[in-house]
Write a structure and sequence with these properties.
alpha+beta; about 250 residues; single chain; NADH Oxidase
């Protein structure tokens, strides 16, 4: 093979390599763009992808009148409530305690396996000052509410909960739901356990916060998943794990 022929072959190989590398880079870029788009569309970061308006909640306060030790000591399941409404500030503090963002890195109030954050938290409100009755999804990053539906759905939730009166009597029913795939995609079937642990962490945080606010709460797990999903308008991919009625204790 002559020197000129070798040079032509070498140049051809170089051009082919460059073209192939360019295609690989384009594919990587397209893949990255697609993944970013998917994250925004599924709103895993707590932000509505279509720009829907949200209702801002008052900023959570860093301290309260009751110590953690006292809140743990006096916490009890409270099932009877007065007709006095909650304030928007109180609702915001409850939701923040369950899933609020607590660091610049986006870490939340409850620990999550691998930071996968499978939980979605909803407030089915009936008696909250300054907020119409309805179902609202909590967005942790914005500390804000997104309207899911209007109207008082407590009767439907109570029916789903085997007629437990506390669900129909609370000023608000907090619904904790899970998107299992966020965690099981990383940890397999073991991730199911991690999701349940996280739901427990969030619920306990919320119940302790209720104590510090002078409110009563009870965790409810006996209900029809499908009926809860229908009453609250939950997406098909979300599994309800808790209904937590909250209100001002009766007789106080």
């Amino acid at each position: 093979m002559g020197r000129a022929t070798c040079l032509v072959v070498a140049m051809s190989v170089a051009l082919l390599f460059a073209a192939t590398t360019g295609l690989a880079c384009d594919e990587a870029t397209d893949s990255q763009t697609s993944l970013t788009g998917m994250t925004e569309a599924t709103a895993d970061d707590g932000t509505p992808a279509d720009g829907r308006a949200m209702i801002p909640l008052p900023a959570p306060q860093p301290d309260g009148p009751v110590s953690l030790e006292e809140a743990i000591r006096v916490r009890r399941s409270v099932r009877e409530y007065s007709d006095e409404p909650l304030t928007l500030t109180e609702l915001g503090r409850l939701l923040w305690a369950a899933q609020g963002v607590t660091s610049d890195r986006g870490a939340r109030a409850a620990p999550s396996a691998g930071g996968t954050y499978p939980l979605e938290v909803y407030a089915a409100t009936a008696m909250v000052t300054g907020l119409r009755p309805g179902v609202y999804r909590y967005h942790p990053r914005e500390h804000a509410l997104e309207t899911v539906s209007g109207g008082d759905v407590r009767a439907g939730l109570m029916e789903a909960g085997l007629g437990q009166a506390c669900i129909g009597d609370g000023a608000v029913d907090i619904i904790v739901a899970a998107v299992y795939e966020r965690t099981t995609e990383r940890y397999g079937d073991r991730g199911i356990r991690y999701v349940h642990l996280e739901a427990g962490h969030a619920a306990q945080n919320l119940c302790l916060q209720a104590v510090t606010l002078g409110l009563g709460a009870v965790t409810v797990g006996a209900f029809s998943d499908e009926q809860v999903r229908a009453a609250a308008g939950l997406p098909a991919g979300e599994q309800p794990l808790y209904i937590i009625p909250v209100g001002r204790p009766a007789g106080y």
